[in-house]
Each structure stands twice: as structure tokens, then as C-alpha cells.
Design goal:
This is ESX-2 secretion-associated protein EspG2. The protein is α+β, with helices and mostly antiparallel strands. The chain is built from five helices and five strands, in the order αβαααββββα.
């Protein structure tokens, strides 16, 4: 899986980021621009290096983004041609400091964004968890749509 990501996004060194977890709903509610992002991140007690990395990743002039979403055919509602769209994403963000992996996770009915170094193992693990959330789970590669 990581090989396909590297084929599409290129190979990059992982950013030297100590992992950061933010509440996605709080983030969406509190942040409107670069200033409110900085205020929100400071309220989350990020250290200086984390603050710099996350603000760089959030700035489209200083980063490039690719987002992965999982789909499974044959199990969704009729209105969407029976295609189920997974309820989370994995983003790969390239910055001057290196690659960052952003994984959307749900825990206790709350949504979080987990930012970690974009190492091959972090990206591979995030993509595997994304796929496991589909109804086919670990059997995703062998699932066939019956027409």
C-alpha cells in the first residue's frame, strides 16, 4: 500500500514531529484563519516544534496535500449506487520539514485528527486502519461486487 502512495506522491522523509491529536469538531468550530489556528493550537499546549509543523502543514502555500478515502461497492445505499464511502480519511502532507500523516479517527463518538511523522510505517498503519473500517475489513482485496 505504501508503495502505491509513494508512486503517486513521491518519496519523502518523515517530518520530525512529535504526534499531535486534536478534536476535529473543536478545530472546525474554533478555527477561521491562521490567527485562530495559532490560538487554538496554543490552547492545546503544543510545543514550539509541534506548533511550527502543524501551522506549516495547514498552510496551502507551504505544503502539498493528498487525501485517501476508502470506498466499498455493493454495500451502500441505493441512492449512492450501492457504494459505501468510509467514514474517515488519511491525508499525506508534504512540507519543507518533511512528510506528515494525518489520520481521522473516531473514539467515544468524538472525531479526532492525529498528526504524526509521515514515515512509511505510520502511513501504512493509517491506511490499513482506514481499510479495516470498511464492511469487508481485512478481506478488502478479495471483495467482489455482485451485479
Amino acid at each position: 500500500m505504501v508503495g502505491q502512495v509513494e508512486r503517486l506522491c513521491g518519496v519523502a522523509e518523515a517530518a520530525p514531529l512529535r504526534p499531535v491529536t486534536v478534536d476535529a469538531d473543536e478545530l472546525l468550530h474554533a478555527v477561521r484563519d491562521a490567527g485562530t489556528l495559532r490560538s487554538y493550537l496554543l490552547s492545546q499546549r503544543l510545543d514550539v516544534d509541534q506548533l511550527q509543523m502543524v501551522t506549516m502543514a495547514a498552510d496551502p502555500t507551504r505544503s502539498a496535500h493528498a487525501t485517501l478515502v476508502a470506498l466499498q461497492a455493493g454495500v451502500g445505499p441505493e441512492k449512492s449506487a450501492r457504494i459505501l464511502v468510509g467514514d474517515s480519511t488519511v491525508a499525506i502532507v508534504d512540507t519543507a520539514a518533511g512528510r506528515i500523516c494525518v489520520e481521522s479517527v473516531t473514539s467515544g463518538q468524538r472525531r479526532y485528527q492525529v498528526l504524526s511523522p509521515g514515515s512509511r510505517s505510520d502511513i501504512g498503519g493509517a491506511v490499513q486502519r482506514l481499510i479495516r473500517r470498511l464492511p469487508a475489513g481485512d478481506e478488502w482485496y478479495s471483495y467482489r461486487r455482485v451485479v
